[in-house]
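Re: weekly structure request thread

Next one in the queue (670 aa):
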Amino acid sequence: MELKQIIFIVILIASISIFLRNLLRLLSYLKLAQPENRSSNPWKRIAHMLKVAIGQSKIFRFRVAGIIHAGIFWGFLMLLFSAAEAVIQGIYPKFSLLWFGTLYPVITISTEIFCLIVFVSVIISLIRRFIIRVERLKGDSGEFKDALIVLLSIFFIVTALLFYNSTMNFWYPSHEWMHPVSVFISRILPDSWVNLTYHISWWVHIIIILAFANYLPFSKHFHVYTSIPNVYFSNYEPTNKVDRIDFEKEGVEKFGVVDFEDLSWKSVLDSYSCTHCGRCDSVCPAHITGKELSPRDIIVQIRHRTLDKAPIMKKQMKSSEGKVDLTEKENEILNKKFVGDYENIEALWQCTTCGACMTECPITIEHIPAIVGMRRSLVMMESNFPSELQTAFSNLENNGSPWAFSPSQRTDWASGLDIKTCAENPDFDVLFWVGCAGSFDDRAIKISRAFAELMKIAGINFSILGNEEKCNGDPARRTGNEYLADMLVKSNIETLNNYKVKKIVTICPHCFNTFKNEYPDFAANYEVIHHTEFLLGLIKQNKFKFKNGNEVKKIGYHDSCYLGRYNNIYDKPREIIESIKGFEIKEAHRHHSKGLCCGAGGGQMFMEETKGKRVNIERTEELVSLGTDSIAANCPFCLTMLTDGVKHLNLEDKIHVQDVAEILLDNIEK
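Done, posted below.
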């Protein structure tokens, strides 16, 4: 065995040992977090992983950055062949990928082409980050240093490989055609430099790879290892679901996320996987309107807290007596509050739970469950929440609604429509779940009446719960008061089961999402339909006769977050509008899954928005800029926020904001 081989083997063993030690240390911290079963539907998970992680499907939502990153990612996958070859050659110098036979030319040519793609992508990335300085890529000096180290490492890895391959062209001239890129280097490389270039390029290539592999666990680029498993273990659908707390479980001393160990292990893995790319921040309605909330920072701080506290917890666990002498710095870390010292409390209350951050994240990080978990600890453990929420909580507890209306007023909206309650008409086919906004808000009541009239015209046998209906629990859940939400959910389930409800239709996407995706956790399964889905079905059954309209009317359209991003319903409401003769949808700049939130979700409807620009104004200005005289929505909360936005802009006489049901009712024969 030659000295070169001995030196390499020593370096390789040391490198692998250090790598495994650090990797296992970081993975051991996951065990300190809460257990969660993410093993269901393995084939679906594999398909999702292949599409999102390997196929990079979400990365292209930002086209330029997506092309650059995909080039580097796929290039690195191809470079695994050359890296493996280099490692094996360090032990067995005669090893070659030539042993792959007919696959060798394919591997070699592909590797060379991807080397060029990676080379160019790295150059562009350096320009974007350090010269153009793209806004969402801005960070502290540590992030810039980290990015520089990683990008330069990749640059030298592919450069060294190309120089190494160029020397092969001297010894195997018949293989020149397999090296379409490095052949240009070989043509300018002096013969006297070939042997030296071969050895230097091989050592540079392999040493940087080994150093790079050991640097990654300490950097934000740890996602190179964790992103693929992170996508595999993600909640592929529905992505923004909030899990229940079992309040009857004995021994529970904490509710919500008090510290990092109260998060699920997946949330900690999320923090390891975050690339700091800033895509989440760039679409967050709170962040882009000048507020403190940064979805990226929330995930980053989870990692910081984990790396600060977990080693101390492990140290304490190793002590047989459970007591261990801690340094002053370690005690200082333990005495810090995760929510407060690491996470900005005010920022947590600015989240609208719109899900834009999770939709854009290319590695499926789950921000909202973490945020809601922290809100839970603030509400249920510390009673630390915005004062305006106290009114909403009290009303929900006493009246079953976030507003101060008596349950006896829940049927007032239906005055003159001859609508039966379940008690009056127990043999109904469909339960119309009106919701709190649809029952009490003056503007939303018009939606309820329009939809009820449409069902009557179509001959639907439906009933309402009337004063037996209570809030579905969403406002309490999203604002962290899970105990209150739990009470509301269980009360509603009891009422629904008493009437043997099978099918529910509702005008509210929040009610729709909660019944469809979260009530099953309480063993309550119903067929839940949003009113736009229901109406489209009636249109296809020819239940309505449309008026003969002649003029072309363009309508701006706003996607509800809880209908769109949460439940992937985008086209059906649009189909209703486009089924009306002469009506056309004019899309906003941000639409469908990229649509901007109205600003009402996550309890914001019941809180004051005091920082930065109001989200509903930002969204209304975008819709107004379309130049249409009508804006369509599919959610009573969105409708209220957009109507307020139009009034704020003094355009209420020029622009009308309507629900899809109202638009349909205006354009059919009664």
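Residues 58 and 455 are 39 Å apart (CA to CA). DSSP finds 28 helices and eight strands in the chain.
Next request, please.
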